[in-house]
Amino acid sequence: MEQIGYLMLVLHAHLPFVRHPEHEDFLEEDWLYEAITETYIPLIEIFDRFLDEHVDFRLTMSITPPLASMLSDPLLQERYIKHLNMLIELSEKEIERTRWQPEYNRLARMYFDNFRKARYIFQDKYGRNILMAFKKFQDMGKLDIITCGATHGYMPLMETTRYSVRAQVKTAVDHYASIFGRPPRGMWLAECGYNPGDDKILEEFGIRYFFVDTHGILHGTPRPKYGVFAPVFCSSGVAAFGRDLESSKQVWSAQEGYPGDYFYREFYRDIGFDLDFEYVKPYIHPDGIRIMTGIKYHRITGTTDHKEPYLPERAHEKAAEHAGNFMFNREKQAEYLYARLGKKPLIVAPYDAELYGHWWYEGPQWLDFFIRKITYDSKIIKLTTGHEYLKENPRNQIVNPSFSSWGWKGYSEYWLEGSNDWVYRHMHEAAHRMHELATRYKNANGLVERALKQAARELLLAESSDWAFIIKTGTVVEYAKRRVKDHILRFTRIYEDVKNDCIDEGWLQDIESKDNVFPNVDFRIYC
Amino acid sequence: MAQDLDSLSKKDIIDLAKQKGVKMPYLYRKSELIKMIQKVDQPSLAKQPKPRGKAAKRIRARNPRLGGGMRQKANASTKPYYEPTYHEDTFQPARHAAPAPVDLNSESGSSSGDLPSSYQDTKIVLMVRDPFWAFTYWDLSPATTAKVNSLMQEHYGGIKPILRIYDVTDVDFDGKNAHRSFDIAIFLEARNWYINLGIPSRSYLVDLGLVDAKGNFYLIARSNVVKTPRDGPSDVIDEEWMAVDFEEIYALSGGFGTGISSQELKVKKKKLFEQLMAAPGSGMFSGASPGAVKVAQEKGKDFFLQVATELIVYGRTMPDAKVTVSGESIRLRPDGTFSLRYFLPDGEKYLPIQAVSRDDDDSRRVAIRVKKDTAAE
Predict the structure, then answer these.
(1) Residue B26 within any structural domain of the chain
(2) B179 contacts: CB under 8 Å, gap ≥ 6
(3) Does any domain span residue B156?
(4) Intrachain domains A5-72+129-261+310-409 and A417-526 with the same fold
(5) A225–B242 C-beta distance less than 8 A
(6) How far apart are CA B96 and CA B94, in angstroms?
(7) How confident is the model at residue B26 (pLDDT cuts 50, 70, 90)?
(8) Where do the structural domains in chain A lie, given as residue ranges?
(9) pLDDT score for B76
(10) Considering CB atoms only, which of A244, A418, A481 is closest to B104?
(11) In the list A237, A257, A480, A509, which could disulfide-bond A467, CB 3.0-4.6 Å?
(12) Which stretch of A126-135, A285-294, B334-343 has the lowest confidence by average pLDDT?
């Protein structure tokens, strides 16, 4: 059988910029540490093994600028090592504590081995900067790293301040080039938020393709001949790839998705909550707040609170089984589509990277099995990337996608509703003011230039869609509100100080050291 | 007032004082705190023109520049506008009811104070939320606020703030050439509103202004133009790229139709459509009489309940049929479906719907009669 379809796997890796040098311990910084241990390092491990074994894989990964900034930040790297050493120590104690419980003892050893391996990969193999691992895979043509708006800003709600969109795009493109040594070809729009016209801005900064949700393509103008199974060109010439819902759902769906299998590890049972307070105290938050440690001994088991011990071998088999099932379904899908479309379909399957490993512990194993299977066993489907696909299929229909997002209900409601709508008044005002400053002080240098660069950083950080998201979700609401407020207030102070010619250098230096993203940000983009 | 406060425990007084913006209230005696609280409360009652109604009263109470200096301070700290606002279960937007103050500085130490509640500039901004809804926020400069207040006094009781929404699809708007427009009565101090625009894939702008008893409109600010997304596939077909069977492609891709691929999605999308359509509307098309909105409110109290209803008529016929509702022809979607949304006042509404086949050979007629009655109980 000849190859009759393409599959593009996209992992969207993102965390908001959380870095608090002013605190010894900061709870929200753990998001990064957990993601490194549970998602990024397992992925690196798999990709390195692919290289060793000559598995010719293709995968697309967006590494957002705030995530890249944190991964390359020496302070956070240092803190991650500290965090990891603590986990190693805890798992050592666990081996001792579970001496007489073989079903847990072997799990404690598993964690101990995993944490040590993580330390080796992070510290020894990649010199604390795991971006270099991803860069290596990209340079070898296996991984396509795309970027995202500078702070994961949700662009459809910047319609009245389009210089904010331009700044999100340009800052990201510059930052990407400084890390990966070449400009990015593709961009993941935060939350797949697409507002017609934004593609022109992408085009201006050399982006060749981006991703939209299914209805972005289906409701595009004119009607897309191949639905979401082929990319379209916007009239600006930039390509848009649409998400395939069927493949997404198999992994994502709470009911029928793979991650809910009873043999997979239970996320919510963690020794940080299960064990005696005095025992875990040194490994939880210094204020005595119990937190997840990452050491979890149970499997999902069923729908009740009763949880059986985790059986790694059994879970591993399940991951293999699910990978086989996923491939079978994609092949059937491709065959059917090929017959209906008269063209090799492209199936685009994007996921949040942190789903793999962090939430779905066996996700990286599943990915490992699936990529091997499809590379070796499938004659029907070929893995591809946006760049490769467009090179092989340069002729595509011109369709202007419709305004859309992959959020709840498909548009902007998640980021614009009663709990979070107040933020836009301030973001828009700050963007207008930034425009005013950039225009007026275009030729600034010295202290004024430093202040303007910091103003741009503060605005960008305030624009992160994560804050509105968290406020709506109701998780760490106070933290998210404080971030919006802090960045807007810092911005406002700079705005006033610059205009009144009274910049306080000591204060500026302090916030430069805290909000230290994008050292080379080009504030003139706001002109 | 003083009597009431005296009867409270010191702890309650401290809590109240905190809400009123008194810093470190536990440092003061109870009697001192009571005085401070009274001082904070006073200016809003003094020297204000007789309030015309709820809206006017609120404007004065909430707008720092219309009150005394102390008032302003109290406002700044007791009513952080960043407090979540709710709109979902009523079409009343963002209500800035006094929330418990949130101390956002406890950990940061690097920035202090609250975000400004106003940027002292008159403007209105319109933002798209989805195919049916938009969000708007506005801000008034002190000068504008003064003008608005003097107009309000001049037309005592006979002038009200409104949002006037214009459909300006494909026109260069000159104030008169909109395809249609409708008004929404608002409270100026709400400072934001969710608007049900009704018809997707159109361009809109909104005017914030006052309308007097004679129907004269006083413009305060005009918004940007936005275009809402369509909620279905485009009518435009590129012949060179014509799908053999677009409906099937649409379904396979996960569109609304009968999909072999995603039954679940179909349900989800259908639900979405229903949710979007069924959400209570703040937007009412012109012709809506304000009396149709039931306001349940006790005199002199802030608490109230507003209820309004809308009627959604939707259906399906052959895509090439001609359909009229109450004698007016309507446009079908490419797949032959249609949906219309009407304001539903009290009383009886009669809607005859007729579909005529393309060759005029066949026709079907369905009539809907709806009776609506609203009463405070």
Answers:
(1) yes
(2) B167, B168, B169, B171, B202
(3) yes
(4) no
(5) yes
(6) 6
(7) low
(8) 5-72+129-261+310-409, 417-526
(9) 28
(10) A481
(11) A480
(12) B334-343
Quick check: A60 pLDDT over 70?
Answer: yes
Over 80: is that where the pLDDT of B11 sits? no
The answer to whether B371 touches B348, Cβ cutoff 8 Å, is: yes
Instruction: Tell me which chain B residues have a C-beta less than 8 angstroms from the C-beta of A156.
Output: 128
Please tell me which of the candidates A156, A246, A486 has its beta carbon nearest to residue B110.
A486
For all residues of chain A together, what is the average pLDDT?
Answer: 96
For residue B264, list chain A residues with Cβ-Cβ distance below 8 A: 249, 253, 256
pLDDT of residue B20: 66
Task: Look up the pTM and report it.
Answer: 0.77
Q: Is A379 on the interface with B (CB under 8 A)?
A: no
Q: In the prediction, which pLDDT does B299 show? A: 52
Question: Looking at residues B135-140, what average pLDDT do you find?
Answer: 97
Residue of A107, A133, A122, A120 lying closest to A33 (CA atoms): A122
Q: What is the CATH number of the domain that holds B127?
A: 2.60.40.10
Do B320 and B200 lie in one domain? The reply is: no
Q: Which residue of A has its CA nearest to B119?
A: A429
Q: What is the pLDDT of residues A176-190, one digit of tens each?
A: 999 999 999 999 999
Size of the A and B interface in Cβ pairs below 8 Å: 189
| Among the partner residues B111, B233, B236, nearest to A218 by beta-carbon distance | B233
Same domain for B46 and B122: no
The token pair that represents B3 in the structure block = 């009597």
C-alpha to C-alpha distance for A393 and A144, rounded to whole angstroms: 17
For residue A215, what pLDDT is reported? 94
Note whether B49 and B90 are same-domain residues. Answer: no
Q: Which residues contact A144 (CB under 8 A, 6 or more apart)?
A: A58, A59, A60, A61, A138, A185, A186, A385, A386, A387, A388
Residue B28 lies in a domain: yes
Architecture of domain A5-72+129-261+310-409: Alpha-Beta Barrel (3.20)
Q: How many domains does chain B have?
A: 3
Q: Where are the strands (E) in B131-174, listed by range?
A: 133-139, 159-167
Residue B243 lies in a domain: no
Q: Which tokens belong to A130?
A: 């795991």
Q: Do B119 and A429 touch (CB under 8 A)?
A: yes
The conformation of residue B112, written as its DSSP 8-state character, comes to -
Q: Is the pLDDT of residue B124 over 70?
A: yes
Task: Return the higher-pLDDT residue of A254 and A251.
Answer: A251
Using CB atoms and an 8 Å cut-off, which of residues 218-257 of chain B contact chain A?
A: 224, 226-234, 236-238, 241-246, 248-250, 252-255
Residues B53-111 have pLDDT tens digits of: 333 333 323 332 222 222 222 222 222 222 222 233 222 233 333 333 333 333 333 44
Instruction: Assess B111–A contact: CB distance below 8 Å, yes or no.
Output: yes
Q: Return the CATH class of domain A417-526.
A: mainly alpha
- ipTM score of complex: 0.94
Tell the burial category of A102 from Cβ atoms under 10 Å away from its Cβ (0-12, 13-18, 19+).
exposed
* Banded pLDDT at B246 (limits 50, 70, 90): confident
Residue A383 has pLDDT above 50, yes or no: yes
**Least confident segment among A64-73, A218-227, B357-366:** B357-366
pLDDT reading at B187 higher than 70: yes
| Nearest residue of A to residue B254, measured between CA atoms | A245
- Shared domain for B89 and B67, answered yes or no, is no
Question: Quick one: B192 and B146 in the same domain?
Answer: yes
Pairwise CA distance, residues B353 & B311, whole Å = 14
Whether residue B218 is found in the same domain as residue B129: yes
Give the number of other CB atoms < 10 A from CB of residue A430: 23
Tokens 């997404």 — which residue?
A248
Give the nearest chain A residue to B135 (CA atoms): A416
Note whether A418 and B85 are within 8 A (CB).
yes
Residues B197 and B165 in one domain: yes
Task: Name the residue range of residue B91's domain.
Answer: 82-97+117-231
Residues B74 and B90 in one domain: no
